[in-house]
Specification:
By secondary structure, the protein is an alpha/beta fold. The chain contains 15 helices and 13 strands. The strands form three sheets. It has a seven-stranded mixed beta sheet, sandwiched between helices. Strands 1-2-11 form a three-stranded mixed beta sheet. Helix 2 packs antiparallel against helix 12 (274-288) and helix 13 packs parallel to helix 15 (372-384). The radius of gyration is 21 Å and the shape is globular.
């Protein structure tokens, strides 16, 4: 029977140390959580500024529920585009310095909507090999030729672009790579896009709110002004540093208009709750005023990196809140995570296919909500496992 094959394949995942399981949190997102009945210090979430349970956002959500109800009732292009959605898009565009922005219910939906709206059969997508799964799926969904270049290898990308005869070209990359924590060379990618008349689409899920002046993102961090580059489309996620949910794409007025007309994941889905949109308006203000949070986060990053020098726990060269320790073997990574859990610390073991085979790792994510003492506790636990 076809369903019996599933049992065999699930058993195979378990034997390879690849079967995943959900953990149930009995507390809100935060750095001190209760998971399956156990109190743990969490280094798991992407809540980089600690805003997910911020009282000001909770109050904004409460007020929005009273004023707007809980649902939008329809897609944006029917009757579901409420005033909070419109105001949010205006705030987002102004914040990142673009002409317009379009809000999507999730980051995955934003990526799946944007790429196929820009390229199709006979065109070509040039994608970093370590791109997030949503970008990989977006490229495949577009039906354009999908060319993957080695991670951050500009010379390889240049060769692919030079050899391409596609009508339209699109360079696709994460800005901060979610499993390694390093940055894409955006200025050089933009120069290649200019040279070969290509779109440059960047997913800044892990940079928005954290990097750049006032948290305006990785392009701002690297000195790129979005308004000066019409071929650059910026995708920012709002469920990580912003502490809520959803995503947006920012660009020129005509590009955003085109996406509104052609991005299927925008057109054919019910609009997100107005509660979410109204809460995000408040979140953008907190991000803009969050220099102290970002400074504290940077202090924690440096403390962790310095504290693990001269140990067997070698971190990748990441300047961001994502601090991975490569272990290699799947079971060894699981055992290390379990040993930390026994000391009351939750660090996830990341395994293929999320990361390449042989690069299973502990993925430490830091938040401005962590204290120095909590990072020191993690350091002590890791050193005890040496």
């Amino acid at each position: 029977m076809i369903w019996d094959e599933l049992d065999s394949e699930l058993a195979g995942l378990a034997a390879q140390g690849l079967q995943r399981r959900r953990r149930v949190l009995d507390t809100p997102c935060g750095v001190e959580v209760e998971v399956d009945g156990c109190a743990l210090l969490s280094f798991c979430s992407n809540d980089y500024l600690g805003l997910a349970a911020e009282p000001g956002l909770i109050e904004a959500a409460r007020e929005a529920a009273m004023l707007w109800g809980v649902g939008s009732g329809a897609s944006h292009l029917v009757s579901g585009h409420l005033e909070p959605h419109e105001t949010l898009e205006q705030h987002l565009a102004a914040f990142v310095g673009s002409a317009r922005a379009l809000y999507f219910s999730t980051g995955y939906m934003a990526n799946l909507g944007v790429v196929p709206a820009l390229v199709g059969r006979g065109d070509a997508v040039f994608a970093d090999r370590l791109n997030h799964a949503s970008l990989i799926d977006a490229a495949q969904l577009s039906r354009a030729g999908h060319h993957r270049y080695p991670h951050n290898d500009l010379a390889a990308l240049e060769r692919l672009l030079s050899a391409s005869t596609a009508k339209r070209k699109l360079i696709l990359t994460d800005a901060v790579f979610s499993m390694d924590g390093d940055l894409a060379p955006l200025p050089q990618l933009l120069a290649l896009a200019e040279r070969f008349d290509a779109w440059l689409v960047i997913d800044d899920a892990h940079g928005f709110g954290v990097l750049g002046p006032q948290g305006r993102g990785t392009p701002a961090h690297l000195g790129i002004e979005l308004a000066s580059h019409p071929r650059l489309l910026y995708i920012g996620t709002l469920g990580k540093a912003a502490g809520v949910s959803g995503a947006f794409v920012a660009g020129t007025a005509n590009v955003i208009e085109w996406l509104m007309q052609r991005a299927r994941t925008y057109i054919f889905t019910t609009a997100a709750s107005p509660i979410v949109a109204a809460t995000l308006i408040k979140s953008i203000k907190l991000i803009e005023q969050g220099d102290a949070l970002r400074s504290h986060l940077q202090l924690l990053i440096e403390r962790l990196r310095n504290g693990l020098q001269d140990t067997r726990w070698q971190l990748l060269a990441s300047p961001t809140a994502i601090q991975p320790i490569i272990i290699g073997d799947n079971d060894a990574a699981l055992h290390a995570a379990a040993a930390l859990a026994e000391q009351g610390i939750w660090v996830p073991a990341i395994r293929p296919p999320t990361v390449p085979k042989g690069t299973a790792r502990l993925r430490i994510t830091l938040s401005a909500a962590h204290s120095v003492a909590q990072v020191d506790r993690l350091l002590a636990a890791l050193k005890q496992l040496q």
